[in-house]
Design brief:
heterodimer, A: mainly alpha, two-stranded antiparallel ribbon, 3 strands, B: alpha+beta, two-stranded antiparallel sheet, globular
């Protein structure tokens, strides 16, 4: 019984750490202030996952297993996304400062054709996004 | 410029009240003209519309079409900080 309580408590701490770290992560994302060095986040997320495992080892009640499982899933998910987030361009073909922007055509949100010639004579900011998510 | 379908762009424009010209580049044709296709792991959910994604990037272009400044994201979780872009605009567009 004591073991169950110990595991449940550790599980709650693990889940709280995972959720708090996630909340801080998205706060920084929203502020466009996510640091280049995200090793602190890796440590916190993996610590949450490790505490989740420890909680299950110490044994919990059936319901008490939910928080540590949540901590393990969250704690492993974020480090995995970080490990695959690096962006790589082909260095020999990427546009550079001093280059002339190539002429291009596209369609806008209403399906209307767009020709980059309309940008001639204007100062322009071009942003490439991955997608809406 | 994004790989979103035009209808998704229209939906998000309305949702967020955006006014800038937003273009669809499903096949990454424009992305490839700029050499901005991500060569790394394709970490986004695969769709029929987009099998790859551009590297998030911001470019400032002068009246002659010359690139004055650009910022590439080294990872997709970090985008161009608006304050950095605004400072670059002040430097290059309003010297």
């Amino acid at each position: 019984m004591t073991g169950n309580k110990t595991g449940t408590k550790i599980g709650l701490v693990a889940a709280a750490l995972a959720v708090a770290t996630t909340a801080y992560w998205f706060y920084l994302v929203d502020e466009v202030a996510l640091p280049a060095d995200r090793s602190l986040f890796v440590v916190l997320f993996l610590l949450a996952a490790a505490l989740g495992v420890l909680a299950l080892v110490k044994r919990t009640s059936w319901l008490g297993a939910v928080p540590p499982l949540l901590a393990i899933v969250i704690g492993l998910f974020f480090p995995v996304t970080m490990s695959v987030s690096e962006q790589i361009v082909a260095r020999d073909t990427v546009i550079e400062v001093g280059d002339t922007v190539p002429r291009f055509t596209s369609v806008d949100g209403s399906g209307k054709a767009f020709d980059s010639r309309v940008l001639n004579g204007h100062l322009v900011l071009i942003k490439f996004f991955r997608a809406h998510w | 410029m994004s790989v979103d379908l035009p209808e998704v762009i229209a939906d998000r424009r309305h949702l967020h009240g955006l006014t800038a010209t937003m273009l669809s580049d499903q096949q990454l044709a424009v992305t490839d003209l700029f050499g901005l296709r991500n060569q790394g792991f394709h970490s986004a959910p695969g769709t029929e519309e987009a099998t790859a994604l551009p590297v998030p990037a911001t470019l400032l272009v002068d009246r002659d079409g010359t690139v004055l400044w650009m910022d590439l994201s080294e990872n997709y979780q970090r985008r161009s900080d608006p304050s950095v872009v605004l400072a670059a605009m002040k430097t290059h567009f309003d010297p």
